[in-house]
Amino acid sequence: MSQVSPPEGDLTAQSRAVLALAVRLAREAGEIQRSRYEGEHEIETKSAAIDLVTEVDTQCEALIVSGIRTERPDDAILAEEGGDHANQAAAWRWIIDPLDGTVNYAHGFPRFCVSIGVEYRGERQVGVVYDPLLDECFEAVRNAGAFLGQRRLEVSRTPKLAEALVATGFAYDVHRSDVDNVQNFGHMLKAARGLRRDGSAALDLCYVAAGRLDAYWEFKLHPWDVAAGILIVEEAGGVVTNSLAGPVPVSGDDILSTNGAIHAEVLAQLNQ
Which domains does the chain have, with CATH numbers? Predict the structure, then answer.
């Protein structure tokens, strides 16, 4: 039997309730991060020597998963540290990066955040990214705009790549893989006004939405890295595709986000 979506008004109300819960949980997790920042941490590695997880990652994930299970026990959850796998056929699915920028956090570098994206029947519906050090909470609901506090977000109007500030990142296998984004980095370094590598995909996407960056691209990411940020960029008027101008894979491992005006130029650089 096919599943029937709720009336638009009901979906809007549900989305607002989901947003409120996501914001609360992101802020609570952010408070853990802020309180433990620049302290001693228990650091382990995962897929590579530079793929880290700390006790703060797992504490934040446990807090978020517990909060969702208390308020919305029937929802599905996909969390970076594997915190929950129940109800995977549910209409609502939460995609959580409890601490995006763990390497930064472990080194005391102030670029990290909590990212919570929520899908409804496979479509991105709610996005929240919280930077606890700057106390900035980026949020979006599908078809309702993107916001930073009370400010409605809009992408920049930068018309040319030569005038643009662009960001990227490198995958955890950069030390052993030939597919390392280095050549793209070199091309973009010559073409753009400025190029940054800050180490938090979720924040980079939000900065495109806020007009602080004009473009951001990266490869070999995961769903939890981009689930919230893609929606926030789109609701701010930006364009998000893969590096061949197609849709971003469900895995999130090939993403380009821009203000739209320079999208074709960035694509050309990535496909030299």
Answer: 8-152 (3.30.540.10), 161-270 (3.40.190.80)
